[in-house]
Amino acid sequence: MNVGGAPENGQVVIGLNAVIVAIIEEQPKVLVVQHTPETLTAQHETLTDRALPHDDRHEALPFGPFYPLKHRTLESGLRSWVEEQTNHEIGYVEQLYTFGNAGRDPREGAGGPRVVSVGYLALVQDTGPTAIENAIWHNWYHYFPWEDWRDGTPRILEKNIIPALRTWIAGSETREQREERYERACITFGLDETPWSDELVLERYELLYEANLVKESQDGKSKPLPVDYRGTPMALDHRRILATAIGRLRGKIKYRPVVFELMPPTFTLLQLQRVVEALSGTRLHKQNFRRLIEKKGLVEDTGKIESQTGGRPASQFRFRREVLMERQALGVRHN
Question: Among candidates 124, 153, 143, which has minimal Cα distance to 282?
Answer without folding.
Answer: 153
